[in-house]
Automatic annotation (TrEMBL):
Protein source organism: Clostridium tertium
TM region positions: 33-51, 63-84, 90-111, 118-137
Keywords: Membrane, Transmembrane, Transmembrane helix
GO CC term, one of those recorded: plasma membrane
Protein name: DMT family transporter
Highest taxon in the source lineage: Bacteria
InterPro entries xref list: YdcZ
Length: 151
């Protein structure tokens, strides 16, 4: 039950952070909003790091270079979401994020385990079809609504 609650809270935090980031970007600008997003995350990470007293000797670890690109990719994702959020419905955006995560998971599984999950691919395709259908229906409704306004 705890894991289900944590999964739900994680999903809620993703949606809330997207909304807060968009509002912040709307108020002070996309780049400044992204900067403060990462500054807040950095300060919070430092606080947790010092509170846990779990110190890691980094010189003993062999960390590949590409592992340090996570921050750069994160910045690009936040910038992209701040730009896309007002243009796409929350439902569609959440599904797009899910499809992206599923796709990356499939790619990681393939390169790390040399396996491809047919269930994940079929699930992703079904979600993509559902999203496409939903966008099609929304577009039809908007066209009908705009025709009704003109008349």
């Amino acid at each position: 039950m705890l894991y289900i609650l944590l999964a739900i809270l994680s999903g809620v935090s993703v949606v809330l952070s997207r909304i807060v980031n968009f509002k912040l970007a709307e108020e002070i600008g996309t780049f400044q909003g992204t900067f403060f997003n990462y500054l807040t995350g950095f300060i919070t990470s430092l606080i947790f790091f010092f509170l846990t007293k779990d110190y890691i000797n980094i010189s003993e670890l062999s960390i590949p270079f590409y592992a340090y690109l996570g921050g750069t990719i994160g910045i690009l994702v936040v910038l992209m979401f701040n730009y896309i959020t007002p243009k796409v419905s929350s439902f569609s955006l959440s599904l797009l994020v899910f499809i992206g995560q599923l796709s990356i998971g499939i790619i990681i599984d393939y390169f790390s385990n040399n396996t491809i999950s047919v269930g994940k691919i079929l699930g992703g395709l079904l979600i993509l079809l559902g999203l496409s259908y939903n966008i099609f229906i929304d577009k039809k409704a908007q066209e009908t609504e705009s025709l009704n306004i003109i008349e």
